Amino acid sequence: MLPDGFYSKSLITDTLPNNVYILKVDTLQKSKPFIKNNLNLGIPKKSSIIQQLKIFPNPTAENLNIEYNGIKRILLSNMNGKMVFKNQTVSNVINLCDISRGTYNLQVFDYRETLIANQKIVKVE
């Protein structure tokens, strides 16, 4: 039995062919699908977008600021994938007061619907 908190485990998929897989964690009796592909769909680490984009403070108790011109859509989901915040926005501030404390996944899209940020956010009280 592990104490409350966020845990992660790396999975090396280099030898797997591109496909959809189901990851089963017996101790939790839960399954999660994942897609393995060799397409470069992520944001390059040295991208000029990442250098221009700032998300702060993290962790946060109230407001999350996103500094970037051209934000169209912001999605925030819990670690089970459930959407807790979705906004078509021109505002660069998200009020998290009504969201429970925990770890969330933040996705930010620009006007071209390009994913420009995919980051873990911690909400504290």
Kindly describe this structure.
The structure is a single chain. With 125 residues, this protein is mainly beta. It has a domain at 48-123: Immunoglobulin-like, CATH 2.60.40. The protein has one helix spanning 48-52, and strands spanning 19-25, 30-36, 54-56, 63-67, 71-78, 83-88, 93-95, 102-110, 115-123. Strands 6-5-8-9 form a 4-stranded antiparallel beta sheet, with no helix packed on it. A 3-stranded antiparallel beta sheet has the order 3-4-7. A hairpin with a 4-residue loop joins strand 5 (71-78) and strand 6 (83-88). The longest helix has 5 residues, at 48-52.
Question: What's the arrangement of strands in the largest beta sheet?
Answer: 6-5-8-9
User: Low-confidence parts lasting 5 or more residues at pLDDT below 50?
Assistant: 39-49
Q: Report the helical percentage.
A: under 10%
The residue-averaged pLDDT reads 76
The appropriate CATH architecture of the domain at 48-123 is: Sandwich
Distance between the termini: 25 Å
- Please indicate the percent range of residues in DSSP E strands (runs of 2 or more): over 45%
Count of helical segments? 1
Largest sheet: 4 strands, antiparallel
Under CATH, the topology of the domain at 48-123 can be stated as Immunoglobulin-like
Q: Layout of SSEs?
A:
Blueprint: E1 19-25, E2 30-36, H1 48-52, E3 54-56, E4 63-67, E5 71-78, E6 83-88, E7 93-95, E8 102-110, E9 115-123
Antiparallel strand pairs: 1-2, 3-4, 4-7, 5-6, 5-8, 8-9
